[in-house]
Specification:
The chain is α/β, with parallel strands linked by helices and about 200 residues long. It has eight helices and nine strands.
Length: about 200
């Protein structure tokens, strides 16, 4: 298992699908020198998703082979689909960056937290049920996809109180600013206070 060193931190964005986790994560990353680590998944890409940009999309055989070779730091199965974070991707991300970020479901988030403790900072992003459904509809997800996600909504929301930080996403730029302020507190700026 990769050992987190010094000031290295993994920021994990979690929360219900459709709450805007990825949007906020990307907005915040542009303000800081942050590298993202993408999950591998066996589910099919949605019409707006690109391989190597949103996820690494692989077939089940490939995923199981990677699992057998112990390439994954953590992996989970949800609704018959597999998701996993490749350890080598984390190692490479930390070669040039002190901070890396991931977007994970609560199950994957919890596994990383157990592995790395304080090295993992959980940022829970959520929106109310109606907003989440509307966002799914706006990005033209199928009724089947929306239904599948909403089935997990309450269960995922209950993870909010376990996370170090939680933000209701009513306005993405505003929330991205709040998250950026939070990440600032982890930067070692060597600010010396002088008394005049």
């Amino acid at each position: 298992m990769y050992q987190i060193k010094g000031k290295e931190k993994i920021f994990v964005y979690t929360g219900p699908d459709g709450s805007g986790r990825k949007t906020i994560a990307k907005m915040v990353a542009t303000a800081f020198d942050m590298e993202t680590v993408l999950s591998y998944t066996t589910r099919s890409p949605r019409h707006y998703e690109k391989n190597g940009h949103d996820y690494h999309f692989v077939n089940e055989d490939t995923f199981k082979q990677m699992q057998a070779q112990q390439e994954f730091l953590e992996s989970v199965e949800i609704d018959g689909f597999y998701y996993g974070i490749r350890e080598q991707d984390i190692i490479e991300a930390f070669q040039n960056h002190e901070f890396v970020y991931l977007t994970l479901n609560p199950e994957g988030t919890e596994k990383l937290k157990k592995m790395y403790g304080d090295g993992v900072v959980r940022i829970f992003i959520y929106a109310d049920r109606d907003t989440v459904i509307k966002r799914h509809q706006d990005r033209q997800d199928t009724e089947e996809v929306i239904e599948r996600h909403m089935k997990h909504y309450d269960e995922i929301l209950s993870y909010k109180n376990s996370c170090e930080h939680a933000f209701e996403n009513y306005d993405s730029p505003q929330v991205a600013f709040q998250v950026s302020e939070l990440i600032e507190t982890f930067l070692d700026r060597d600010l010396t206070e002088t008394d005049y």
